[in-house]
């Protein structure tokens, strides 16, 4: 029987009430993209598969009970311990690629927490001293040399291990304060980390369990890279695509064979009618053309369909100018017949187009460097854009005011240029 994440959490918490592990059953509540990597959530070294049912993620009640019974039977013996091998820079220096960083590695995670906590602790200490040094009635006055000295000090000394076994002046209490609620495999590892007087140790049973979790998580992630069509191996989760029942792995070639390309045949059709009569996941994503689409992208201002897109491209659409610079993105936005006829873009893109335009034309006097826009405010129909010049940062700050009408003209020119480029091709 499939059950909700909330019921799964309650069931697991009840089954492990007397367990010696510091479990966090709340890890069963899925976050965005939770099942993207390999479709499972780990509680300890037990993998619990997620199932998508009617658009919602659920768990099999039998999997939850199996996990609960397994974890409840794990006896933690605090007199039988092993060295945790933290803190150690080795777990940072050994990585060779992003994939190495993303692989399950519990010792690397613990080391990351420790060194990050040391930096936060030192930043708080030095920041407080800097505030006292720079206290003044004018809150805009601040001595930048204090910040420079602080950064140099933190990066230079945070790796020096003190007699208490932690870098810098970090205390165990501060470490727990900063990262005590973080989890590894659904467990709060810092609650079992103990200083022996010589090194940091963990119960052997717990360390062995984390080793098993690490191995199983990596095996599942590796299997999830394999295209289910041609058995080719992809990188990380690049080929993972959502379906009505969960994620599947399909390479671009197999996706192209399995799903049809969108030909723009719904141009000018209202989204409210399309969503009832056409399934977006019958098509390839119109933007990346390598993944199965999951939703109908549409213009919220005019209500017209643009085309089917995958979840990744739909998320990327919120990146402003970065999205606009992607090949085909502006043409995709103009699939809305309302935007195309008005020669405009949705209002949420106007500021991005305006800032990109101003950085091309604004200059500090005769300086040739592109300025940096570090702030903007919209007041009574006027955009107030604050700039400074990187080449003259200490002396060059100014504000450019642009009315809504002027911004609309800039957007219209941008659209016209895009349309002209498309017709020329």
Which SSEs are present, and which pair or pack?
Elements: E1 2-3, H1 5-15, E2 40-43, E3 46-53, E4 56-60, H2 61-72, E5 81-83, H3 90-93, H4 98-102, H5 106-133, H6 144-157, H7 172-179, E6 194-195, E7 200-203, H8 204-223, E8 240-243, E9 246-249, H9 252-258, H10 271-277, E10 295-298, E11 305-309, H11 311-316, H12 321-324, H13 329-333, H14 337-342, H15 350-361, E12 372-379, E13 382-388, E14 397-403, H16 404-424
Antiparallel strand pairs: 1-4, 2-3, 3-4, 5-7, 6-7, 8-9, 10-11, 12-13, 13-14
Helix pairs in contact: 1-2, 5-6, 5-7, 15-16
Structure notes:
There is one protein chain. With 425 residues, this protein is of the alpha+beta class. It has four domains: 2-72, no CATH class; 81-223, no CATH class; 262-342, 3-Layer(aba) Sandwich (His-Me finger endonuclease fold), CATH 3.40.1800; 347-424. Helices cover 40% and strands 16% of the residues. The strands form five sheets. Strands 1-4-3-2 form a four-stranded antiparallel sheet. The chain is flat and about 75 Å long.
């Amino acid at each position: 029987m499939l059950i909700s994440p909330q019921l799964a959490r309650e069931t697991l918490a009840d089954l492990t009430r007397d367990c010696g592990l510091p479990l966090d059953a709340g890890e069963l509540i899925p976050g965005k993209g939770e099942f993207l990597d390999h479709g499972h959530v780990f509680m300890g070294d037990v993998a619990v598969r997620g199932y998508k049912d009617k658009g919602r993620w659920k768990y099999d009640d039998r999997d939850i009970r199996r996990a609960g019974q397994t974890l409840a039977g794990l006896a933690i013996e605090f007199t039988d311990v092993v060295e945790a091998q933290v803190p150690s820079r080795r777990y940072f220096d050994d990585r060779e690629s992003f994939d190495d960083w993303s692989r399950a590695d519990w010792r690397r995670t613990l080391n990351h927490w420790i060194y990050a906590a040391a930096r936060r602790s030192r930043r708080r200490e030095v920041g407080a001293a800097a505030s006292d040094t720079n206290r003044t009635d004018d809150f805009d006055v601040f001595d930048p040399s204090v910040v420079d000295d602080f950064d140099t000090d933190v990066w230079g000394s945070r790796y020096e291990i003190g007699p208490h076994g932690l870098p810098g002046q970090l205390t165990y209490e501060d470490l727990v304060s900063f990262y005590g609620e973080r989890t590894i495999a659904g467990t709060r590892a810092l609650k079992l980390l103990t200083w022996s007087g010589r090194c940091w140790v963990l119960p052997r049973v717990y360390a062995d369990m984390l080793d098993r979790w690490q191995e199983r998580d990596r095996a599942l992630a590796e299997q999830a890279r394999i295209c289910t069509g041609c058995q080719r191996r992809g990188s990380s989760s690049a080929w993972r695509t959502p379906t009505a029942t969960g994620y599947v792995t399909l390479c671009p070639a197999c996706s192209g064979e399995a799903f049809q390309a969108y030909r723009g045949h719904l141009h000018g059709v209202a989204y409210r009618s399309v969503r009832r009569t056409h399934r977006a996941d019958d098509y390839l994503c119109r933007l990346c053309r390598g993944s199965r689409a999951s939703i109908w992208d549409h213009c919220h201002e005019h209500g017209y369909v643009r085309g089917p897109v995958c979840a990744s491209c739909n998320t990327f659409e919120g990146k402003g100018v970065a999205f606009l610079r992607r090949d085909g993105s502006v043409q995709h936005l103009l699939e809305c017949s309302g935007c195309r006829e008005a020669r405009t873009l949705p209002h949420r893109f106007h500021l991005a187009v305006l800032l990109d335009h101003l950085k091309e034309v604004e200059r500090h006097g005769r300086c040739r460097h592109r300025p940096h826009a570090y702030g903007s405010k919209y007041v009574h129909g006027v955009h107030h854009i604050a700039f400074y010049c990187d080449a003259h940062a200490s002396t060059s700050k100014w504000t450019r005011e642009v009315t809504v009408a002027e911004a609309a003209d800039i957007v219209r020119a941008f659209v016209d240029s895009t349309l002209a480029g498309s017709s020329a091709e």
